Amino acid sequence: MVKAPSLISLAALAVKRELLLGDDVIPYVCELPADLFDILLTYLPPLALQKLQTKMDGDDCGSPDYCFENGRKHGRYGNFNTVWKKLFKTRWSGVTDQIEPVDWQQRYWEAHVQGCLDEAAELVVLPSFRGLISDINISDTILNYIGYEQQMNHLACDYSKLSYHCQQFGHYARCLRLQNALCVEETCVQALCKLLIQNSETLASLEFLHCKLSPSFVEGICRSLCSKRKRIHKIENLSIDISSFIENCPSSVVVELVSFLSSGRSLCSLKLRHCHLDRDFGRMVFSSLLEASSSLSILDLSGNSIGGWLSKYDRSGPLFSLGAGKSLQSLRLLNLRGNNLCKADARDLGSALVHIPNLEILDISDNTIEDDGIRSLIPYFVQASERCNPLVELYLENCELSGRGVSQLLDTLSTLRRPPTSLSIADNNLGSKNRGGVETAKFLSKLMSLAPDLVEVNAGYNLMPLESLTIICSALKVAKGHLQRLDLTGNNWELQPSHVSMLSEFRHNGLPILILPTLQALDVPYDDEP
């Protein structure tokens, strides 16, 4: 037998419908006792909740006392925030933020706008698409999520259009991700620039993914984000990923980007990854950062061919003697992976790194810097270990280093007061693609003794014989360092139960230090059933 609805639930549903269709009921809602008011909130879909909260926050109400009851206002971050959080978790159950939002209303509508833009991007690429992106109809699935009902069709607002959602909820977006389909000049640029202008004071992160960017598009985006009076933008995180600049980045694009980087006082993360950029563009970025006043902490130029980008700078000249720009002073992560750098670039980089005093993570993997290149960087590693904020992570994968060059590096690191706690030298010519057999175990033994502060090593797929395990375990006992994880997967070992007991003593915070997936088979009870 179906349970009859309660009087409160029926009343709440009636109020919900009235809120979706108009504002007349709001003054009466504000007079509800606190307990009934809180119950009502749990019945409201996003559109109705948004309308009620906007009125209660004083927007368009004509009086800041619009919803005070006995001197108490229903707070913006009180029960409203709890309901917004529930709505967000219900709609995007798989999304987890690294830092839990304070304002769940803002987080909800930000995710909603992004969902609308992603859906529009899928429609724009269809051969049947004609017209402007702002006129795209939002799907019933998305409209149902926010509480749209068919009886709302007669209202002046056209809830079905993308333009409505961008105009009404776009100002909640702090982060936007734009795909190539949304960056087509003929159909999208005008609407996109309008959205960015609307959010220029609040937008913090902007990401372009798989885009082909024309000069006029770049100019429009940069100017939309900058204040007309001061020519300063408030973007904190800018990412252009797996994209390209049409016309091979002409001078007009360079001028706009230089101006944009120089005017970004809030910029803290700049990622230009896999964008087919050359060394001239790399020089432009570096020059802009020397002159900029932002507090940049992340610079990622990976996947571009910028070899020679630092070759024209006089390392004893005024730029470096002044300690470089504020942006380089604050830099903590530098990613130059796969940038077609050679040993000469490593030498130039070593001179420049001295003037980046707070760098903690350096990745120069997939560059042919060879042994000479790593030797030219050793003076920097020595100097970095004496800083207040030493280098913490160093990635030198696939740099065509030999065993001799790596040994020289390790000998140096072992003498440092505070060496890096994470070092990756994978895919170098230490054996055959690092498949050095028992010599790998001997190398690991030396590594653990010389670098006791290392916390993680990946030594998988080295074709080590089984006796290597005894060498490694002996080294772990003697070293007594801080190693938390040693990956030895991919070695074809037939482990015996005796090995399990030998390995059991090597644990960190209850987890095994030695990662051997084949051990899982030993934990499964033997089944002799046919």
TrEMBL record:
It comes from the Eukaryota. This is RNI-like superfamily protein.
